[in-house]
Amino acid sequence: MGDSSQKAPAIVILGKGALNTARRIQQLYPDALIHGLVGRVAGADRSYSEFGATLRQLYQHDTPIIALCAAGIVIRTLAPVLLEKGAEPPVLAVAEDGSAVVPLLGGLGGVNVMAREIASGLETTPAITTSGELRFGTCLLNPPSGYALGDLELGKRFVSDLLSGERVRIEGEAPWLAQAQLPEDDRAELAIRVGYAEREPSANELLIYPRNVLVAVDAKVDNVADAVKAALHESRIALQSLACLLVSEHDMANPALHAAAETLNVPLRFTAAGSPGDMAQQVLPQLLSPITPIEGIAIVVAPQPLDIEQIGHGRGRLAVIGLGPGAAEFMIPAVKAELVRANDVLGYETYVRMAGPFRADQVLHCTDNREEMQRARHAFELAAQGRSVVVVSSGDPGVFAMAAAVLEALHESDNPLWHSVDLEILPGVSASLATAAQAGAPLGHDFCVMSLSDNLKPWDVIEKRLDLACQADLALAFYNPISRSRPWQLGRALEIVRQHRTPETPVTLGRDIGRPGQTLQVVTLGELTPEQVDMRTMVLIGSSLTTTFPRVGGGQWVYTPRWYGAKPLR
Ligand code: SAH
Q1: Of the four listed, 226, 493, 524, 563, which is most buried by Cβ atoms within 10 Å?
Q2: Does domain 215-310 sit in CATH 2.60.120?
Q3: Spatial separation of the C-alpha atoms in residues 187 and 202, rounded to whole Å
Q4: What's the pTM?
Q5: Where residue 285 falls among pLDDT bands split at 50, 70, 90?
Q6: Domain 317-429 maps to which CATH number in 3.30.1330.60, 3.40.50.720, 3.40.1010.10, 1.10.760.10?
Q7: What would the DSSP string read from start to end of 219-243?
Q8: What lines the ligand 1 site, CB under 6 Å?
């Protein structure tokens, strides 16, 4: 549905009352996520805390917006960002009870098409106000995906001529106009012309180009964008009909090719290395042999618009993301966006579940917590096929988690395709910082982060580091403090700490911070026993200056002052 909009829409609701209508709309767009205001809507797919910032961000990221609230709220909210854009995503206001559907913005992005789809799903009539659309039953300036409009300004004049009573003929194949109510006449002066041939624009013609041309390029060609333009011009093919650039998969990370594709405003697709002619034949074997007007460039013209997703593959992406401690509000927006984009999600089952919900088309690969290197290699195998892959960690992926394993797997690999993957590490709020924030500022001065697990490092190294960190009077954050298979290590670690710190030293214990059933406890080093700690606990031990004072309402604030030595006079 809604083939005119590329991205899945966001359904944004303010209160529980809208959830039912939101769900009905979601059935029309199964990939759409429902965004609910935190604390007010339980059962949304994503929660947000600020309506305005959320709506503006979706708009700026070209996400179609279906807002279940008053049209005025949407208009006022988006007003500050409206002038920044030429092309814009569809934006609709829908009444909470589903009785009204109002297309507001994004006429060229297919907002009226969506308004019709939603209104028919909700069994109501859309509030269409676009005159051309009302008269002809279609927006001529918004051809379906796979077709490009020649010129918007000329197009607007053309439509207003039609509205003033002119007749029109259609040249070329425009299957989507079959159902439109156009004043057709074979001898009309105005013509809608659909075709890939290069043409001079004229006021009498509405030019629409099928995106049915593929150009395969050798990366050795100088100045690829200009060369492609010249080759198309030489062959009398319109640049607007170019659907994609095809190059060898060994050039997946080649910056010049990425720049050329951006200049030409088309996607880059990849296939096994070969001459441009061979590459074009690999991906479109059913077509006649390509034309090669210029050395290093081959052109293929297909009878229909090309389905880009079916041509070779895209550049794979691998993102190693940090979910933060658990609660959705503590997840950075870039991580949320990455989860929407993912084809494959890999990780320890608990974390994969925490990262959800996922759509039916997203493949989950849940593994045991111990198989990290294998998981990292699997991620590269998937990404090298052109898929968008996410590896999830809790907290920050660089803190005792998957980022280092992924980089180690890449370092060990001599597969050029793995090295060409678009790899990005997206940070998260680590458990020590999430716990510290709840307690006050126990890590407010220099501190040391350690994992007490001796699975991957010898225990005597842990003892030595701990001893030196204590000597340096650093506050300490212990990850992996204890587990069933490592029962005695924490007790031994505390013996070392007690050689350096007094029994009054404040200790913060955070368990399942940011998750359901979280607990926060402040004790002293003298009181602390290993029984108070398990593998879901973060242990923060103070330095000699860490101190506490009572909090109104119960409990204690803990902080380590920013100064050291004698307290400065202020
Ligand atoms: N990458 C993670 C840490 C993984 S190591 C991060 O940056 O947070 C796993 C250890 O982190 C656990 O044994 C526990 O000590 C700590 N931890 C992770 N999540 C936690 C949470 N929500 N609350 C308390 N401790 C947590």
Answers
A1: 493
A2: no
A3: 17
A4: 0.76
A5: confident
A6: 3.40.1010.10
A7: TTSSSHHHHHHHHHHHTTB-GGGEE
A8: 325-326, 393-396, 399-401, 430-431, 435, 479-481, 510-515, 535-538
